[in-house]
């Protein structure tokens, strides 16, 4: 089997007016993402998806350009089933043969950032293709399910203290989840405002729902410690991106001082970016984003690193249906994953790009036996959202 064509298409998916929450990244009016198709001479097409975090349209347009103009052409004529070799080929570039002979990475220039997002979208499409070619679901190719279903947590919660309880209850009702993650951090002003919102949230949802918080990397080391200690009675399951991942060294001190788990990693590229977290004993939960980290192949490597250090894995899920399905198939096959992020608002693309891939019932996620990622693309919706056509 040979690859004959690789195309990337940027989509801009509008968020319905009543769903446009405002995060510290700004109002969520659209969700930008990049759809990848890898065609073969066997008539089988693999589907992937990737995006830069936070939906910057120009960044996603650049990812599409990297795939269409650079990485895609390098795959023409290759056997798509050689996924690891192709990942290494694209990561190492012109020195791929030397790297393969030496048994170590000799990465191309531009080995972080948008080129890794592009590689992630291609990698997801290759796994989907392998599944379709072998008649197996991706989770089976990854070694099978480590549990029959996974609990999800509803992801959302941007409102002020007086409204946060109603907002969280709405998302819990929508998903059936027994856990929820709200946003905190600099957007809300002084750290006391975030503490008050968490206290209000815990009062509203009661003692039996697990509660996580996400600061999107905006607290200082001191603010993060104050927040973690002050919210001890709210019994947070985890405190996500308390500080920017640029401050990896500062995470260790926070983790030592915090009564709850510290999570992060959604903005980190490749397994190599997780090594400093391990060196510093900095995190309790790794959260690779399958687009950002380099696809299913790299998420597995990060998952294996995590397992060796008693670290939980919970993939970051805030893209469209294809990336979510890839995350679901990875998560259910990874022994270190215990809970799955399920966007509860402001993300139409999460369920609109395709049917299938994964299902939610009673707050639990499942995947089925269909080949590949099990997706049936909604070409009408995709055509309506397409802003970049190859
Ligand atoms: Mg996050």
Number of domains: 2
Number of H- or I-type helical stretches: 15
Shape: globular
| First-to-last CA distance | 23 Å
CATH architecture call of the largest domain: Alpha-Beta Barrel
The low-confidence parts are none
Q: What ligands can be seen in this structure?
A: magnesium ion
Write the layout of secondary structure elements.
Layout: E1 3-14, E2 22-23, E3 26-27, E4 30-40, E5 45-50, H1 57-75, H2 83-92, H3 96-102, H4 114-134, H5 138-141, E6 150-155, H6 161-175, E7 179-183, H7 191-205, E8 210-214, H8 221-230, E9 236-240, H9 248-257, E10 261-264, H10 275-279, E11 285-286, H11 290-293, H12 295-308, E12 312-313, H13 321-333, E13 340-343, H14 349-352, E14 354-356, E15 359-361, E16 364-366, E17 375-377, H15 379-385, E18 386-388
Parallel strand pairs: 6-7, 6-13, 7-8, 8-9, 9-10, 10-11, 11-12
Antiparallel strand pairs: 1-4, 1-18, 2-3, 4-5, 6-16, 14-17, 15-16
Helix pairs in contact: 1-4, 2-3, 2-4, 4-12, 6-7, 7-8, 8-9
Magnesium ion binds at residues 214, 240-241, 266, 316.
Describe the overall structure.
With 390 residues, the protein is α/β, with parallel strands linked by helices. The protein folds into two domains: 3-135, Enolase-like, domain 1, CATH 3.30.390.10; 150-377, Enolase-like C-terminal domain (TIM Barrel, Alpha-Beta Barrel). The chain has helices at 57-75, 83-92, 96-102, 114-134, 138-141, 161-175, 191-205, 221-230, 248-257, 275-279, 290-293, 295-308, 321-333, 349-352, 379-385; strands at 3-14, 22-23, 26-27, 30-40, 45-50, 150-155, 179-183, 210-214, 236-240, 261-264, 285-286, 312-313, 340-343, 354-356, 359-361, 364-366, 375-377, 386-388. Strands 6, 7, 8, 9, 10, 11, 12, 13, 15 and 16 form a ten-stranded mixed sheet that branches. The protein has a four-stranded antiparallel sheet with strand order 5-4-1-18, sandwiched between helices. The chain has a two-stranded antiparallel ribbon with strand order 2-3. Strand 9, helix 9 (248-257) and strand 10 (261-264) form a beta-alpha-beta unit. Helix 4 (114-134) packs across helix 12. The longest helix is centred in the N-terminal third of the chain and has 21 residues, at 114-134. The chain is globular and about 60 Å long. The two termini are 23 Å apart. The mean pLDDT is 96. Bound molecules: magnesium ion (MG). The site of magnesium ion has 5 residues, from loops.
């Amino acid at each position: 089997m040979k690859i004959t064509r690789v195309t990337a298409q940027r989509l801009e998916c509008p968020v319905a007016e009543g769903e446009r929450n405002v995060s510290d990244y700004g109002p969520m009016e659209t969700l930008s993402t990049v759809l990848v198709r890898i065609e073969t001479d066997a008539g089988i097409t693999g589907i992937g998806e990737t995006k830069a975090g936070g939906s910057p349209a120009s960044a996603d347009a650049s990812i599409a350009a990297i795939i269409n103009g650079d990485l895609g052409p390098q795959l023409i004529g290759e056997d798509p089933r050689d996924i690891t070799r192709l990942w290494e080929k694209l990561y190492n570039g012109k020195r791929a043969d030397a790297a393969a002979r030496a048994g170590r990475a000799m990465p191309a220039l531009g080995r972080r950032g948008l080129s890794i997002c592009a590689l992630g979208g291609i990698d997801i499409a290759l796994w989907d293709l392998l599944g379709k070619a072998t008649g197996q679901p991706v989770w089976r190719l990854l070694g099978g399910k480590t549990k029959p279903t996974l609990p999800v947590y509803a992801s959302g919660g941007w409102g002020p203290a007086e409204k946060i309880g109603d907002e969280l209850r709405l998302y819990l009702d929508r998903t059936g989840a027994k856990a929820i993650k709200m946003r905190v951090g600099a957007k809300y002003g002084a750290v006391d405002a975030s503490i008050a919102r968490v206290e209000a949230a815990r009062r509203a949802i009661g003692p039996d729902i697990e509660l996580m918080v996400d600061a999107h990397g905006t607290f200082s080391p001191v603010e993060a410690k104050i927040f973690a200690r002050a919210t001890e009675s709210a019994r947070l399951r985890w405190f996500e991106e308390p500080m920017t991942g640029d401050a990896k060294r500062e995470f260790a001190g926070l983790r030592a001082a915090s009564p709850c788990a510290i999570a992060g990693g959604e903005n980190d590229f490749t397994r190599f970016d997780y090594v400093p977290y391990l060196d510093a004993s900095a995190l309790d939960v790794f959260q690779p984003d399958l687009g950002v980290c380099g696809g299913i192949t790299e998420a597995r490597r990060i998952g294996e690193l995590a397992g060796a250090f008693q670290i939980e894995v919970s993939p970051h899920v805030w893209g469209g249906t294809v990336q979510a399905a890839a995350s679901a198939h990875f998560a259910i096959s990874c022994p270190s994953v215990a809970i799955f992020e399920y966007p509860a608002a402001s993300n139409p693309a999460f369920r609109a790009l395709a049917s299938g891939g994964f299902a939610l019932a009673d707050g639990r996620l499942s995947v089925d036996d269909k080949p590949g990622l099990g997706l049936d693309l909604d070409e009408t919706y995709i055509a309506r959202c397409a802003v970049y056509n190859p």
